[in-house]
Specification:
- This protein has 904 residues and is an alpha+beta fold.
- Among the domains are: 91-275, Transferase(Phosphotransferase), domain 1; 344-594 and 888-903, Neuraminidase, CATH 2.120.10.30.
- The chain contains ten helices and 59 strands.
- A hairpin with a 4-residue loop joins strand 38 and strand 39 (652-655).
- The longest helix has 25 residues, at 309-333.
- It is globular and about 100 Å long.
Amino acid sequence: MVGRTILQYRITEKLGEGGMGVVYKAEDTQLRRTVALKFLPRETLDEEEVKARLLREAQAAASLDHPNICQVFGIHEEDGETFIAMAYIDGPSLAEKIKERPLPLDESLTIATQIAEGLHEAHEHGVVHRDIKPQNILLTAKGQVKILDFGLAALTGRSKLTKTGTTMGTPAYMAPEQLEGRKVDRRVDVWALGCVLYEMLTQKSPFEADYEQAIGYGILNEDPEPVTALRRGLPPKVDDLLAKALAKDRDERYQHADDLLADLRVLQKQSSGARKTSSGRSTIAATTGRAVSATDALPPGAVVVQQSRQRIERVLAAVLGVALLGVSYAYFTAPASEPPEQTVTRFSFAPEGLRVTDFSAGASISPDGKNVLYAAQTDGESSLWLRSLSNESARELPGTAGASEGFWSPDSLSIGFAIGNELKRVPINGGDPITLCQLPGASFLGGTWSPNGERIVFSSGARLYEIAARGGEPEMLFEPGEGQRRNYWRPHFLPADGGSHGLAYVAAVNATDQMLTVMDMETGERRELGPGSRPGYSSEGYLIHGPMSHEEAGLRAMPFSLDSLEATGQSFPIDETGRFASVSLDGTLVYTDYPTGGGHQLVIRDRSGEILQSVDSPLGGQQPRPAVAPDGRSVAFQVGGDIWVYDLDRSVRTRLTSSGDSTESSAFWPSSSEELSYASRGDQGYRVMSQVADGSVASRTLLETTRNLGTLDWSSDGQYLVYNATPGPDSPEGEEGGIWYHERGPDGSLSEATPFLLTPDGENAPQFSPNGRFVAYTSNESGQFEVYVRPFPPAPGKWQVSTAGGIVATWSADGRELFYVEQAGVAALMAVSVSTQAGFVSEEPTRLFESPDLRGGTARRHYDVFPDGQRFVTSGGVQTSDGEAPQTIRIVQNWYEEFRAREQ
């Protein structure tokens, strides 16, 4: 079979073989994904009735969409072979893990909980598995459970022991009614899960015997030995749970998977609570994906005090007597003191499909500290997911397909989010989303609920709007004033006893120049607090925020007064690599890693968005901002403050600059592939530099300026330099941001800057048309960013090219098309046919492809087009073998305890 292609599947490897068929690893050549193919035994499919039953079972299995169920893609019949195509899971089976050792209690409960959640989903859709066993449970690299083979155990109809004592099923996990050939229902899966949990804890089956008839006899007539008798340190409630799951009378068993699930969660909570330290000193507990039980090996320096139940009973009376005496003495004699410090606990998880970009919200924790909200991608489409901190389960929120971020209601029961041009809300415990309003602008950059739950403030088109939480017509919160920053993002209501006293948000020029700002909602007064991004309030009295620029990382805490709405001290760092923080009312901090060893790579796509080639190794967390050379054979890009050039012919990248104390960005090619230019920012101010592309000649300075440079471009004849810029620290008083240009003289020097377009509307990313007669750019003049074209040199005339929001326009080499990014919903690359021969004429935009990789700032281009107009280079997320982006959500409970000493 290996090497053979059946339909669109090319078989690459045999994975295993069992009673229900042979499983192969294969490549789906149409969708370019790895799948698993299960070929079913021909002898079981020799009757039409059996085939029809198989089809029904496969259809039922394919209807299940749950993170703990292995997805079925289809059932096929070809060349006499019948096989099922399903998701490929690169991880061990539970049977393999159990073979190594008994699992710790916490790990066993976590796995059992995920199995129960998957079964609950299946049972709700009328699907019974009938063959739950460790071999049918796979575990991903992140520890997520995937249940295989729903419905296949029923194909042959052989569910009881034959005369020879063999079965087509797995007798060790069969419920009594299953063995006796009676009609089965969801309760056989509950029984089997009980057997699996028993085996995880003890490394043996509850009805272990040397041959199958003996196993069957034990299932029908004997009770298993309690797990607490086989393994020390387990709580007695584990015995109680297993006894109910393995009740021989199914009417006495758990009647539904969710009943078992509820008890598993209670047991999980009690188990984790029993391990928490009661010391008054601050401790930090680090978790790396599996819990440490009393029977596990401990790291050096760790101390575990174990006392038998008998010893506890012997000292209990004495302890109680001393405790009562101590309490009385302490009450009357002890001075007032600070409350004891809490335990700092750290753990993390990396959800499948997590993609955090510069302009998505990362993860956020509910105000009650129980659930984490994040966006994850499936088949290229983003949706919202909830992960419970109590049982580590995750589930997709229905109706959120297309959403890339959300925000919590103050009661932790609802989520606000945007899809396309609509703002919506959805309850987390069931129910369909409802539409609150149409977004006034094309983009959505964050929302927040007022403390009393009555109002919502959100950012759309870089403006802040307010709306009733039940829906209605949005109202702009305030108009930007003369000379003020024009873009407003990431609003966050501050806590208040009533109403909505304070609102923190980001006031920005662009993605690299952001200022934390607070507004008094009663008076309308606004004040800037200092550089920073994405504010979130922690009840210890701090604004947690990120850096001023999207190109930087690190979380900081700013002492802050809710009464005066002012900073009361200097911000201090709390994490060097984190971004996008959120804090619950109980002091649980959630944030996303800024990926330093991965995160982005360059990819080449065709006009349909299909990835043709990955053209470089991981480039770190910031977008590389690529620029294609005029001959199409090289790509320049920015990584870590330096400019690199990638040679496509030789697959080699060369570091062009060694920045030291300066930061290089915005690489672009003037008119040939021999030399390129870039912007530099350092102690000497802002400069435009020129460098021979092979690095053989030292760079030279073309321009020195006090302005903070954005996107730069040369006209095709090399005579004019155009760029967008904002005032720098040394700029003259009252200088405006906008687009400027310089003319190059005969000696190569540049003239004084001439304004091309200076308005308070945030003009960005200018680019010359190939014939040099027009400049395309982005502006926020309508209240949302759109792409416009103006004549060059400046003359009357202006044409809006985009129709539903647009940023970072790029011309085709022949000047017949103009490309730009539309950021509403999933970001899309748009193409517009244009003519620049007799004036400017444009047609309706067409959508080429959608990709979250196209999201980025408005000030600098984050994609480019090849000279043939058929290929594009973008910044893609680095993929692991599972197809997951290497990004992690970090959780720190009682985060402030690490920094309490600062108050001393």
